[in-house]
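Feature request disguised as a bug report, sorry. It would help if multi-protein outputs had a clear separator. Right now it looks like this:
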Amino acid sequence: MTRTVLITGATSGFGAASVRRFTNAGWRVIATGRRADRLQMLVDELGADKVHAAHFDIRDEAAMDAALAEVPEAFRDIDLLINNAGLALGTAPAQSASLDDWRTMIDTNVTSLVTLTHRLLPALIARKGAIINISSIAGSYPYPGGNTYGGTKAFVTQFSLGLRSDLHGTGVRVTSIEPGMAETEFTLVRTHGDQQASDKLYTGAQPMTAEDIADTLYWVATLPPHLNINRLELMPVTQSFAGFQVARK
């Protein structure tokens, strides 16, 4: 039986790598994102029988509903939701951060995630499906400049645990994946396109790759249905926990 996964934020990074990983394993994929050209590239690469491109901004609830209503019949039986769409914006401390950036992170990482999840819960329950939410180590370990981004990811982790509790007895599995440093477009987005800052962060650090995370998502998704991974934290070997800060006079 061919299974179907809906992956948000599929135009780059973890999302695009996951589209490839799942389709190559025989799944159908609904790939969502804001950049229609990149979604079309995935369709062209992998085939329209395997990938359906759903072009919309995850923050636009009406557009989300319209896109879901237009999903072709062959892709309608969704077995897995991967809530991958998310972003960090800015590295400034809270007292000088952009409120607009904060609101964008909350709208994308929290509000949109819960909205889509709520929309798909009846179908996922009916199919005894699964939900994988992409959180971050930033939701567990604070760092300067992490402020709202870390707060949104802490929400994703706790929301996942709450879903797991609420869905007890339905057969639906829920997992929070919490990656550390991975080299994608993440830092480019966070720094509003500063390639030098991105290169500086990742050079020599041997970060994880988008493919590493895609392989992990596929592993979680294909475990026997009686097993649930509640939380999974991943870091590259070169990254570990920071020490406490001390301000001295």
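(second protein starts here, but nothing in the output says so)
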Amino acid sequence: MDEFTRIQTFVKVVETGSFSAAARHESSTSSVARQVKSLEDELGVRLLNRTTRSLSLTEPGRVFYERACALVKDLNNAKLAVSSFQDDVKGLLRVSLRVSTGTTIIVPALPALLEQYPELRIDVSLTDERCDLVAHNIDVAVWIGHIPDSNMIARRLTPSQRIVCGAPAYFRRRGVPQVPADLRRHACIVYNIPTHRHAWTFSKDGQHEEVEVQGALRSDNGLVLLSAAQAGLGLIVVHEWMVRLPIAQGQLVRVLADYAVNPTVGDADLHVVYPSSRGVSRKVRVFVDFLLQLFQGQAAAGAAAAPARQ
């Protein structure tokens, strides 16, 4: 029997006035008596005066009882404080987000969540790399593509496809492309990283067409591409979920909607992931539900937005 259990038992004996009352619903009278006797032997003093009819504290027993009560109370308060983190949405939540997704979609929506849960604090890190969540003490992450790790719990936030879009001002100046080949006469903003070629592939009715594109601006940062397109500098290929809100607000317009764009580049579905090795706290569940609702709302907004006339 551990020391603190014996102390708790001693306090209960004093509060109830007998070994039998302290043992009720939890243990036997003999077990309670043995715990108190073991505590006395360890301390080297008698804590209780025992008669056949009553128990009373000795002088050292009274001193020990007063300190023990404070100790038991502190532990109970500590347990309540910790358990409240499971029941209430409070404390620090460490989140890893993709740069573009976090900046343009998730972070702007956080005020509503934090207003609902004022005791929640969120530590956001932005990276397009998949780090080890357990090693980096991350509670929740948003990743793109296939999730192969069986040690992770993954919820798909949204399926995705790649689309071509641009600003209304751009189309007023340059016209709307009707077929992929028209892009050769348009300014195209290219994602300039080694794994991406400066050619966009289109598929329709089983037919595939690759178009070499060019323009005045290239970048290895998705936010730069998005900002440039909104400024009217040209057309971009982008994940559909990245531009749902700008399209719904009329800042961007989708074109060539009848074609699948870059269908062989890879899975672009967006997932929220968290370690399966940890107990899932309520703050994690609340944040996951918040993301699911956020992307469901944006999907509805995106479905209501019409593409440019072609």
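Even a blank line would do. Unrelated, but nice: The domain at 3-86 is CATH 1.10.10.10 (Arc Repressor Mutant, subunit A).
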